[in-house]
Design a protein that fits this description.
Elements lengths: L8 E6 L2 E4 L3 E14 L10 E15 L5 H9 L6 E6 L8 E11 L2 E2 L7 E9 L5 E4 L2
Antiparallel strand pairs: 1-2, 1-5, 3-4, 4-8, 5-6, 6-8, 6-9, 7-8
């Protein structure tokens, strides 16, 4: 039976102090292979082959200026320091699925509209060369 992600928890920070990100709305783990053009000249047809795989975590959340994890993310966009991330899709209960990774925060862009809440759409963390790991919550 499918489980709802309504109780999902995302944590960001250093290895010793991961902090829960407030107001998580949605998340996704993207895995994408780079495309390598292997077309042979004169064949009249293009061909591609898969290259290195890139993995990223993308999250949407309501912006909260007093949230320590969001402040950490905003301060570390583009930093060479790796950020630890822990994702618990259905909550932190022991035995639930867990995704962990180290990566670089590539974007964190608060935005708003006159008739709505401030949001961060597409906070993006690209994993290091080891990628992320699926396991179970301790």
């Amino acid at each position: 039976m499918a489980k709802k992600a309504a109780f999902g928890v995302l944590k960001l920070g250093t290895p010793d102090t991961p902090v829960v990100v407030a107001d998580l709305r949605t998340w996704r783990v993207e895995q994408e292979a780079n495309e390598i053009d292997t077309t042979v000249m004169g064949t009249g047809k293009g061909s591609m082959a898969p290259g290195a795989v890139m993995e990223a975590l993308v999250a949407d959340l309501f912006f909260e200026s007093t949230d320590a994890a969001q402040a950490y993310a905003l301060a570390n966009v583009g930093s060479e320091a790796l950020v630890d991330v822990e994702l618990y899709p259905i909550g932190e209960t022991m035995g639930n699925p867990q995704w962990t990774a180290k990566g670089t925060l590539m974007s964190f862009s608060p935005e708003g509209a006159a008739d709505g809440a401030m949001e961060v759409n597409g906070m993006r963390l690209v994993t290091d060369s080891n990628g992320g790991t699926w396991g179970t919550a301790p």
